[in-house]
TrEMBL record:
Coiled coil: none annotated. It holds the Pfam family RVT_3. GO terms for molecular function: nucleic acid binding; RNA-DNA hybrid ribonuclease activity. This is RNase H type-1 domain-containing protein. It comes from the Eukaryota. It comes from Chenopodium quinoa (Quinoa). Residues 10-119 form the RNase H type-1 domain. PANTHER family: OS05G0353850 PROTEIN, RNASE H TYPE-1 DOMAIN-CONTAINING PROTEIN.
Length: 151
């Protein structure tokens, strides 16, 4: 059986207002074996960012549809290969911040992907973004326009 190697990759989280406006973002490095593990670590990291910012209600978006179902039924995750991460997420769900999980198309998650790519270039392990970083500006403006067009 082939053992997968841990690799260091980037993760990104975007915090938007209900109208899609930029509230903040974060880029950081994670060590993982699979893209699903990276996505779960990004979700956990995004939850921690929201909790530390003292948000009360947050909608988490993921382009990994299979993970959305797992996150909605954490009771069944005891033997899952990512049980430790899922347990951590479960503990975060018990706090004051209320989370909802939504699936979005990969194209709609482009800004977070740009922040994740930015993380790979960091000297340290984490960077916060009070404004939209230049590398994500076009994707952000497109998402904002698309969300305004669909309203």
């Amino acid at each position: 059986m082939k053992t997968r190697q841990n690799i260091e990759v980037g993760a990104g989280a975007v915090i938007r207002a209900s109208d899609g406006g930029w509230l903040g973002g974060c880029s950081w490095k994670v060590t993982a074996r699979t893209s699903a593990e990276v996505e779960l670590l990004a979700i956990k990291g995004g939850m921690l960012v929201a909790i530390n910012a003292r948000y009360k209600k947050v909608t988490m978006e993921t382009d990994a549809q299979s993970l959305k179902g797992i996150l909605e039924d954490l009771k069944k995750s005891g033997t899952h290969e990512f049980a430790a991460i899922l347990k951590d997420i479960g503990e975060l769900l018990k706090g004051a911040c209320k989370f909802e999980f939504n699936y979005i198309r990969r194209e709609a998650n482009e800004v977070a992907h740009h922040l994740a790519k930015l993380a790979q270039q960091l000297e340290g392990h984490i960077m916060t973004h009070d404004s939209v970083p230049p590398c994500a500006r076009l994707a952000y403006e497109k998402n904002l326009k698309d969300s305004n067009d669909s309203s």
